[in-house]
Amino acid sequence: MSGLRVYSTSVTGSREIKSQQSEVTRILDGKRIQYELVDISQDNALRDEMRALAGNPKATPPQIVNGDQYCGDYELFVEAVEQNTLQEFLKLA
């Protein structure tokens, strides 16, 4: 597994999750950072993979991973954007 991946779901009743997912992808797209969107609603194994990488059996999307290194969740992503440390957060620097 290589490259930046954003774990998301296309099936959720949570407006918060939908909003967080779209903000993450909007920011990455705006900064022209390439990533793969992984839809965990398509396969339970993907959800389990996301949770294992996050180290949290209850982790919810969006979760961000670079290769096999866990970067963080939405809150940590936003914090990195605000502190101008996104490259480091995404393990790209």
Summarize the structure.
This protein has 93 residues and is an alpha+beta fold. The protein has helices spanning 15-30, 44-54, 74-82, 86-89, and strands at 4-8, 36-39, 63-66, 69-73.
Account of the 3D structure:
It is built from four helices and four strands. With 93 residues, the chain is α+β, with helices and mostly antiparallel strands. A hairpin with a 2-residue loop joins strand 3 and strand 4 (69-73). The two termini are 18 Å apart. The model has no long low-confidence stretch (mean pLDDT 96).
CATH superfamily: Glutaredoxin
The number of domains is 1
Shape field:
globular
Q: Please give the alpha-carbon distance between the first and last residues.
A: 18 Å
Tell me the Rg in angstroms: 12 Å
Poorly predicted ranges:
none
Helix count, per DSSP?
4
Oligomeric description of these chains: single chain
**CATH class assignment:** Alpha Beta
As a percent range, the share of helical residues equals 40-55%
Write the CATH fold name.
Glutaredoxin
- What is the H-and-E element order? EHEHEEHH
| Number of DSSP-assigned strands | 4
Keywords: Acetylation, Cell membrane, Cell projection, Cytoplasm, Glycoprotein, Membrane, Nucleus
Subcellular location: Cell projection, Ruffle membrane; Cytoplasm, Cytosol; Nucleus
Function: Could act as a modulator of glutaredoxin biological activity. May play a role in cytoskeleton organization.
Organism: Muntiacus reevesi (Reeves' muntjac)
